[in-house]
Design brief:
Elements: H1 2-25, H2 28-64, H3 68-73
Helix pairs in contact: 1-2
Length: 79
């Protein structure tokens, strides 16, 4: 969680820096690059939250179903 949070914060700072340079120099390409970097940071957060909910659901199935052991044995490296 902390690694992903650090990545998102760094992407946010990079996006703000690109947009600030774009505003100072009146460059459209840097503004576009800053927007794309900000969208990438949002995508990283979205994927993290979607995957965390999915993995919680899969691990809760482990306690409910005896057949889920086969399904979750491939996911043991995530623990």
């Amino acid at each position: 969680m902390l690694i992903i949070l650090a990545i998102v914060i760094l992407l946010g700072f990079w996006a703000l820096r690109l947009m600030e340079q774009a505003f100072q120099r009146q460059e459209f390409s840097r503004m576009l690059a800053g927007t794309l970097v900000a969208m990438a940071a949002g995508g990283v957060l979205t994927c993290y939250f979607l995957m965390s909910d999915t993995l919680q659901m899969l691990f809760s199935l482990q306690a409910q179903s005896p057949h889920s052991q086969e399904l979750l044995s491939d996911l043991s490296w995530l623990d």
